[in-house]
Amino acid sequence: MTPPTPVLQADALSFGYPGQAQRLLFDKLPVSLPPGVTWVCGDEGVGKTTLLQWLAGTLSPHGQVRLRGLALAQTSSAYRQQVAWFDARDPSLDQQTARQIFSALPQRHPGFDPAALQAHMEGLSLTPHLDKALYMLSTGSRRKVFMAAALASQAAVTLLDQPFVALDRPSITYLLGVLADAAKNTDRAWVVADYVAPENVALAGVIALGN
Predict the structure, then answer these.
(1) Class of the CATH-defined domain 1-82+156-165+178-211
(2) Which pLDDT belongs to residue 73?
(3) I want to staple 42 with a disulfide (CB 3.0 to 4.6 A). Which of 72, 123, 197, 209 is the partner?
């Protein structure tokens, strides 16, 4: 069987933080994201979150990154519209409400699906928290706001960093169901960075860091 065409392809990725020239997190790392769910795994400090950040276009690694013909280096704005990435720890968003975060999605991601957002809000029990500022929310509820935004973006690539942290059991079950469905997708890539693979989710690929 012919392997599916990658949604995202990166060649010879190298990255190290400023002032740490002797310590590269990645040295000529190849990345290929097929449709479906890819698991990024590895121990603490090997660069799982960093990898997601450069896939999102928020860091500038050495190497070529292309998403459906869009080169990050040449078309960064169009590229970022095709990648869903939300940093739940970003303090600059503390004063915004969940409703405000969601209202900005159509401009951020042109393919945004409001019906999907409604379903994810219900599945993650977010409706009571729509008009609360993010700083007022628990860690779990705050993370669920960004989770729902990413899931509803309909972006070509959706990046989830340790998505189950601080979630209640019903929300974990709901998210696992979403990922199980995503695993069957034939034109979008989902990336889950975590220490363990998502339970009962068929994986299209595995990127093991630090080996």
Answers:
(1) alpha beta
(2) 86
(3) 209
